[in-house]
Amino acid sequence: MKLIIENDAGTAATAAAQLIAEEIGAHDTPVLGLATGRTMEGIYARLAQAHEQGTLDFSCVTSFNLDEYVGLSAEDPRSYHYYMQDHLFRFVNIDLHRTHLPDGAATDLDAECAAYEAQIARSGGIDLQLLGIGDTGHIGFNEPPSSFDTRTRCVELDEATREQNAAMFGGDPNAVPHEALTMGVGTILDARRLLLVATGPAKAGIVAKALEGPITPEVSASAIRLHKNYVVILDEASAAELSPATLARAQRNA
Ligand code: F6R
Predict the structure, then answer these.
(1) CA–centroid distance, residue 134 to ligand 1 (Å)
(2) Would the CB of 139 count as within 6 Å of ligand 1?
(3) How many angstroms separate the CA atoms of 125 and 119, rounded?
(4) pTM score
(5) N or C: which end of the chain has fewer CB within 10 A?
């Protein structure tokens, strides 16, 4: 593991955006795995800024997002399709035909998930998968327990996750869809490199569990420790419950 601890959420987002930009620059046809959520907003803002400044070209990038709510169309402002347009795609020169998210409005969800896996495989696999971590320890929407060989599938969202994401649904956890399509833990582990980013004090407990607790389907983010090439970027607040031994291994950019 490469663990980077930045001062705050802003510098953590800058470090993550730099790493993503380097990955894009390292391939002729880079394939990125993307995530949504509050943690990613600062990262996408910095990628958009780099593009605007002429230092980052998305024209050859292919992307696959982790997840989407079941029942929401791409035009729904609460969908992750909409989020990606709103936070990244409309600001950069990515070819929209090369952007992919699972279709939560598909009539046959199982067929949609199988097709999504096939598309990832056809693209040659994901070079860098960006990950956040949820209050339940999920990566993507892999709620506990999610075995480490799971593939893209329909899952039931945990109550804690619906609470975490209620803000986009008028503050009402019951208004958050109860199901989502998500890449599986196995799909995520197939990516050639993983980048997990967490910021803020609310993430400190689950970050410590994921990085130092047992590697278990009960905390799907713990699975990243089985990967041979993964980077974790935290801010001081989300790193607050890590042990001195783990902190000693971290690179700090004060
Ligand atoms: C979203 C996703 C989730 C989020 C996680 C953290 O596509 O895959 O795993 O990364 O729920 O969300 P925030 O950043 O809103 O705390």
Answers:
(1) 5
(2) yes
(3) 9
(4) 0.98
(5) C
3-class DSSP state of 150: coil
Give the contacts of 241 (CB within 8 A, at least 6 positions apart).
204, 205, 207, 208
Residue nearest to atom 1 of ligand 1 (CA): 36
Provide the pLDDT confidence category of residue 252 given band limits of 50, 70 and 90.
confident
Say yes or no: CB of residue 138 within 6 Å of ligand 1: yes
Ligand 1 neighbourhood includes 132 CB (under 6 angstroms): yes
Q: Is the pLDDT of residue 23 over 80?
A: yes
Neighbours of 108 (CB within 10 A): 9
Number of neighbours of residue 21 by Cβ within 10 angstroms: 17
Q: For ligand 1, is residue 197 a contact (CB within 6 Å)? A: no
Residue 181, token pair as written in the block: 């399509």
Return the pLDDT at 105: 98
Q: In DSSP terms, which residues pair with 28 in a beta bridge?
A: none
Q: What is the DSSP letter of 153?
A: E
Q: What atom in ligand 1 is closest to the CA of residue 202?
A: 16
Q: How far is the CA of 100 from the centre of ligand 1 (A)?
A: 17
